[in-house]
C-alpha cells in the first residue's frame, strides 16, 4: 500500500484527496487511515522513504576522499546521484511538495543539500589551495552552481521531456568541468578577482 501511495502522490501531487488515494491503492479510506493516522503522517512517510531515504551517507565519505582526483569524485557522485535520486518519480514528488508548500523541499535542503554543497566547495577550495568563503551562505551559492545545473538537467529530461540525444553520462562531466574552471575565480579573494 505504501508503494502505491507514493506512486499516486508522484502522479497527482500531495494535495490529492485521500479518498482518491485509497481508491488507487485498492483499499478503503478507513484502512488507509489505520496505516497512516492522518495525511501529515503519510506525507512524513513519503519524505522518509522517497525523498531523504535514497540518499547514501557514504557519498559524503567518497566526496572527501582526496586520494581520488576531484573531477572523478564529482563525476562519480553526480552520475550515481542522478541515477538514484533524480528519477522521474523523485522529481515529481519533490516538485509537487514544493508547489503544495509542504515542508519536504526545505527539510531536504536543510538536512542534506546544505552539507553536500559545503562539502563540494570545501573540496574545490582545497584542490585549488584557496580558502572557503567566510560566509557559509556564499559557499552554498557556489555549490549550487554545480548542483543546480545537474538538478536542472534531470528536470529537463524527466519533467520537460527533453529528448536530446546526448547521454546524461556525457553531460554531467561538462557541468563538472565548467564548475571546476570557475571555482578559482569565485573563490579568489575579491582583490584578486578580474574586474
Write a brief structural summary.
With 195 residues, this protein is mainly α. 72% of the residues lie in helices and 0% in strands. It starts with a helix and ends in an 8-residue tail after the last helix.
Give the secondary structure arrangement, pairings included.
Blueprint: H1 2-12, H2 18-25, H3 29-35, H4 39-52, H5 58-63, H6 70-84, H7 88-99, H8 104-127, H9 136-158, H10 168-187
Helix pairs in contact: 1-2, 1-7, 6-10, 8-9, 9-10
| CA gyration radius, whole angstroms | 19 Å
Care to count the β-strands? 0
Kindly, what is the distance between the CA atoms of the first and last residues, rounded to a whole number of angstroms? 59 Å
Shape verdict? elongated
Helical percentage: over 70%
Helix and strand run: HHHHHHHHHH
Please tag this protein with its features:
Arc Repressor Mutant, subunit A, mainly alpha, 10 helices, HTH_TetR, about 200 residues, DNA-binding, 2 domains, HTH-type_TetR-like_transc_reg
Structural commentary:
Helices cover 72% and strands 0% of the residues. The chain is an all-alpha fold. The mean pLDDT is 87. Helix 1 packs across helix 7, helix 8 packs across helix 9 and helix 9 runs antiparallel to helix 10. The protein contains 10 helices and no strands.
Amino acid at each position: 500500500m505504501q508503494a502505491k501511495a507514493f506512486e499516486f502522490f508522484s502522479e497527482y501531487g500531495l494535495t490529492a484527496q485521500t479518498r482518491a488515494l485509497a481508491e488507487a491503492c485498492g483499499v478503503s479510506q478507513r484502512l488507509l487511515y489505520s496505516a497512516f493516522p492522518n495525511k501529515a503522517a503519510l506525507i512524513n512517510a513519503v519524505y522518509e522513504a522517497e525523498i531523504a531515504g535514497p540518499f547514501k551517507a557514504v557519498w559524503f565519505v567518497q566526496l572527501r576522499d582526496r586520494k581520488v582526483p576531484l573531477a572523478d569524485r564529482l563525476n562519480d557522485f553526480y552520475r550515481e546521484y542522478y541515477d538514484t535520486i533524480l528519477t522521474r518519480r523523485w522529481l515529481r514528488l519533490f516538485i509537487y511538495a514544493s508547489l503544495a508548500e509542504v515542508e519536504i523541499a526545505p527539510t531536504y535542503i536543510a538536512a542534506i543539500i546544505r552539507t553536500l554543497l559545503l562539502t563540494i566547495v570545501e573540496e574545490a577550495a582545497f584542490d585549488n589551495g584557496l580558502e572557503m568563503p567566510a560566509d557559509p551562505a556564499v559557499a552554498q551559492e557556489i555549490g549550487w552552481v554545480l548542483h543546480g545545473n545537474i538538478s536542472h538537467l534531470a528536470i529537463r529530461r524527466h519533467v520537460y521531456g527533453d529528448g536530446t540525444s546526448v547521454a546524461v553520462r556525457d553531460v554531467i562531466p561538462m557541468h563538472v568541468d565548467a564548475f571546476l574552471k570557475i571555482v578559482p575565480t569565485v573563490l579568489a579573494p575579491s582583490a584578486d578577482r578580474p574586474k
